[in-house]
Amino acid sequence: MIKAVFWDFGGVITTSPFESFNRFEEQNNLPKDFLRLVNSTNPDSNAWAKLERSEVDLDEFNDLFMEESKKLGHATPGKEVIALLKGEVRPQMINALKSIKNRLVLACLTNNIQAMDKQFEGNVSASGKHDEVMQLFDFVIESSKVSVRKPDPNFYLLACEKANIRPDEAIFLDDLGINLKPAKELGMRTIKVIDPDVALDELQSLLDFQLS
């Protein structure tokens, strides 16, 4: 029996930051997907991972990311990349959240950055108008607050513990396969979000009530 639906935020509830990354790369004469390459090199110990676990502040991240990107051929300030993270809310996902609310446990499982600089005041992955969206969830697990990040299995187990469920009683939606793999290994039903409408069709097939 499904008792909870867990959602990633960026790239699921909102448009993917990778779209913003690609525009930035084109505007700055960088190879396509260069920023993703930087972030996927040494993914558990690089600047991005450290920032999402709140192990470094934005100034330290800026310098670390600059060094990492320089080694890969194109020095890029980390703060310029952080500024690309804000996405547009997908209305069909909000409608789905509203349909599920009060029927199943709703939680957001997000790798995020607790900004430490006035330039990026607040949580940049859920700022501004996104605050009202976050209120639809019963709870939120944020990497910057728990010092664990996806795809560490402990991140998902924290969510299950808080929801008082077993992993096999949850559905998890994320836009990255690397984040879905450990959730699936724990027993969760997983949905990779590429096209949001296709993802919602998959979600509907796992539920015994209609999404609006």
Write out key terms for the chains shown.
single chain; 212 residues; alpha/beta; Rossmann fold; 2 domains; 5-stranded parallel beta sheet; 11 helices; globular
Tell me what the structure shows:
The chain is an alpha/beta fold and 212 residues long. It has 2 domains: 131 residues, Rossmann fold, CATH 3.40.50.1000; 66 residues, Putative phosphatase, domain 2 (DNA polymerase, domain 1), CATH 1.10.150. The protein is 44% helix and 11% strand. The protein has 11 helices and 5 strands, in the order E-H-H-H-H-H-H-E-H-E-H-H-E-H-E-H. It has a 5-stranded parallel sheet with strand order 3-2-1-4-5, sandwiched between helices. Strand 2, helix 7 and strand 3 form a beta-alpha-beta unit.
Count of individual beta strands: 5
Structural domain tally: 2
Q: Distance between the terminal alpha carbons, to the nearest Å?
A: 21 Å
Give the CA-based shape: globular
The structural class is alpha/beta
CATH architecture of the largest domain: 3-Layer(aba) Sandwich
SSE order, one letter for each helix or strand: EHHHHHHEHEHHEHEH
Q: At the third CATH level, what is the topology name of the largest domain? A: Rossmann fold
Strand content: 5-15%
Low-pLDDT runs: 116-128
Let me know the average pLDDT.
91
